[in-house]
Amino acid sequence: MRQVKGKGKADTKTKEVGVQVLGVNHRITTPKYRFQLLQTEPVSDRVKGVTLKVAIYQGNDPVTNIEKVTFDSTSENMDQRTKQVVLVLEDRQYDKKTKYTLRLRDAESDIEQSTVDVIIDRAFSDDF
After folding, report:
1. What pLDDT sits at residue 11?
2. Would you list the domain boundaries of the chain?
3. Cα 118 to Cα 27: distance, rounded to the nearest angstrom
């Protein structure tokens, strides 16, 4: 963590909570996939809640439903700040070599908060 000169405890700027996608190497093999999202800190005087739009994209096009998830827990307990979001893939062909991305976007500003690469590896009958 780096210190910014001239900014001390008197700085009362608020920021939004951080949200992290739990797990690594997300490989989707079923039509529905559950992601665990962690609100990294409790909401407080200086940290405000956030509502995110969550979906998997190929380029700029969503390939799943877009779920809105609000992170506004004031709990110190990490388990109580974890939310699950279930995304359902569109019924179409997927190529496991294609780059797909889970995106978390601010529901109000549409600013991307974070992205995670995912692999969609659906076995179809024409693979044999």
Report:
1. 55
2. 15-121
3. 6
Asked whether the beta carbons of 115 and 105 are under 8 A apart, the reply is: no
Q: How far from each other are the two terminal CA atoms of the chain, in whole angstroms?
A: 52
81 SS3 class: helix
pLDDT in the model for residue 1: 55
CA dihedral 112→86→27→122, nearest 10 degrees, is -120
The class that CATH gives domain 15-121 is mainly beta
Low-confidence ranges of the chain (pLDDT < 50): 2-3, 6-10, 125-128
Integer-rounded Cα Rg, in Å, for the chain is: 18
**Residue 29: other Cβ atoms inside 10 A:** 11
| pTM greater than the 0.70 cutoff | yes
